[in-house]
Specification:
By secondary structure, the chain is an all-alpha fold. It is built from eight helices and two strands; from the N terminus they run ββαααααααα. Helices cover 81% and strands 2% of the residues. Strands 1-2 form a two-stranded antiparallel ribbon. It is flat and about 70 Å long.
């Protein structure tokens, strides 16, 4: 008997149509379609992400902020060198010592309380003087200078590192506790590793998102310390927030994609 060609439209199916063969091109098409639909539905988020990626690219190509001239650098360093950090440290130590002695509250309790108030007042005066001199140095440099951009990027990397430390610390404790539970439940190594992978991804998402929110909350204080005009301040805030959002999102997409692959 001659073999008839198979024209069944379900030829690509497994068994009786229970499942389908998934190819790499199919996954890519599905991912692109999902991204396209999300971009059309959430235009503000998509625009912020693309604007942030563009900002990161420009920072990489053009450098982190405007370079200070020789005179600006000299004046900036001169102002910063006038800040007496040792005096602030001494005042802070005196205040904390007096605070502890007052909390112990023996027969000289009121004397310690007055000493604490006096040292607190001295410490506040030194901090105000330091902040005023730092503000003068920041105004001289400018918000878009290497000093201003560098301070914002340093703040972001500090919070970003804290978020990763949170994820690693929580994952370590979960690895210990889940390992003990797995031994008691006779779970297989595959189940244990899959569970830990999910926990690590969740903690990384939580840690980086919380760090991003904290960075945004403190960003305006950094901008305000340079005393720019309102238009410049809002433009810098939006640009820095979008850049941070784009970096955190791309980082999370990368680790989630690597885990899924």
């Amino acid at each position: 008997m001659n073999q008839q060609p198979n024209n069944n439209p379900t030829a690509g199916r497994i068994g009786d149509g229970v499942g389908t063969i998934v190819t790499t091109s199919g996954i890519t098409t599905l991912a692109l379609t999902t991204i396209k639909n999300f971009s059309q539905r959430h235009k503000v988020i998509s625009t912020s992400y693309l604007y942030g990626l563009t900002t990161l690219l420009l920072l990489t190509l053009l450098g982190y902020g405007r370079k200070l001239s020789f005179d600006q650098q000299r004046q900036h360093n001169h102002i910063m060198n006038t800040i007496d950090l040792q005096a602030e440290y001494t005042a802070a130590s005196s205040y904390h010592t007096a605070e502890w002695e007052w909390l112990s509250c023996d027969t000289h309790c009121q004397d310690h309380k007055r000493t604490m108030k006096r040292t607190k007042y001295e410490w506040d005066e030194i901090k105000e003087e330091r902040n005023a001199r730092m503000s003068d140095a920041k105004i001289l440099a400018g918000l878009f200078s290497e000093v201003g951009v560098g301070e914002v990027t340093d703040s972001f990397w500090r919070y970003f590192a804290s978020g990763k430390k949170f994820a690693k610390r929580q994952s370590m404790w979960d690895a210990i506790s889940n390992g003990m539970r797995s031994m008691s439940r006779n779970e297989s190594m595959v189940e244990y590793m899959l569970k830990m992978l999910i926990q690590v991804l969740i903690y990384f998402g939580m840690g980086l998102i919380i760090s991003f929110v904290i960075f945004i909350c403190g960003l305006w204080n950094i901008i305000h310390s340079y005393q720019p005009n309102p238009l410049t301040a809002h433009f810098f805030f939006v640009t820095a927030a979008c850049a941070a959002f784009a970096f955190v999102s791309t980082y999370l997409f990368a680790i989630y994609g690597a885990a899924a692959g």
